[in-house]
């Protein structure tokens, strides 16, 4: 009877096993990612397409829109961040609001107002998501101030804190204060 020797022994055997293990791991990871509803994208989402739809606003233009009263700023951050500080006159439109709530919030906005979504900084995707969501419910032409609160404060823009009457959270906070 002949002893069958493995094809790879010693250092080569270890390397072969490591490569097989790595290939199986990568294959399982790809399958798990593909099967998961919130899987990681294979390539980054193109920011250019978002900018074409929504239009960008520079910090100087944002300051002029606030100063002149022609702009209505929509803060896409979470309510806690809005309460800590926001662009004067901004409305809190955090993630998770239903379309009906957003439409009610913007119902009295004049057609002459420039709607501008913003969030924390350049890395924050919430302002683009808000602009896209508004576009999907028929509120078109929302522009995005990509620098957000970080750029606003660095440029010396004034900041309001708390919730104002008429914001999505200010109205509910005011109604619940006496309860």
Describe it for me?
- The protein has eight helices and four strands, in the order H-H-H-E-H-E-H-E-H-E-H-H.
- It is of the alpha/beta class.
- The protein folds into two domains: 8-36; 55-170, Oxidized Rhodanese, domain 1 (3-Layer(aba) Sandwich).
- Strands 2-1-3-4 form a four-stranded parallel beta sheet.
- Strand 1, helix 4 and strand 2 (91-92) form a beta-alpha-beta unit.
- It is elongated, with a radius of gyration of 25 Å.
List keywords for this structure.
Oxidized Rhodanese, domain 1; disordered C terminus; 4-stranded parallel sheet; 179 residues; 8 helices; alpha/beta
List the total number of helices.
Answer: 8
Q: What level of helicity do the residues show?
A: 40-55%
Shape, per Cα inertia axes: elongated
Number of strands: 4
Q: What's the order of the H and E elements?
A: HHHEHEHEHEHH
Q: What would the CATH topology of the largest domain be?
A: Oxidized Rhodanese, domain 1
Compose a concise summary of this entry.
The protein is of the alpha/beta class and 179 residues long. Helices cover 47% and strands 8% of the residues.
């Amino acid at each position: 009877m002949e002893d069958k020797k493995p094809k790879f022994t010693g250092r080569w055997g270890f390397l072969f096993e490591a490569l097989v293990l790595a290939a199986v791991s990568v294959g399982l990871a790809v399958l798990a990612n593909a099967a998961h509803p919130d899987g990681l994208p294979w390539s980054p989402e193109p920011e250019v397409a978002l900018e074409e739809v929504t239009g960008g606003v520079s910090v100087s233009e944002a300051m002029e829109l606030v100063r002149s009263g022609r702009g209505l700023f929509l803060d896409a951050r979470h309510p806690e961040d809005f309460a800590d500080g926001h662009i004067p006159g901004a409305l809190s439109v955090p993630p998770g609001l239903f379309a009906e709530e957003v439409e009610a919030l913007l119902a009295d906005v004049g057609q002459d107002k420039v709607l501008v979504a913003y969030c924390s900084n350049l890395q924050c995707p919430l302002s683009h998501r808000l602009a896209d969501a508004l576009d999907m419910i028929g509120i078109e032409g929302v522009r995005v101030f990509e620098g957000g609160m970080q750029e606003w404060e660095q440029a010396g823009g004034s900041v309001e804190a708390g919730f104002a009457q008429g914001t999505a959270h200010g109205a509910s906070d005011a109604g619940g204060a006496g309860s």
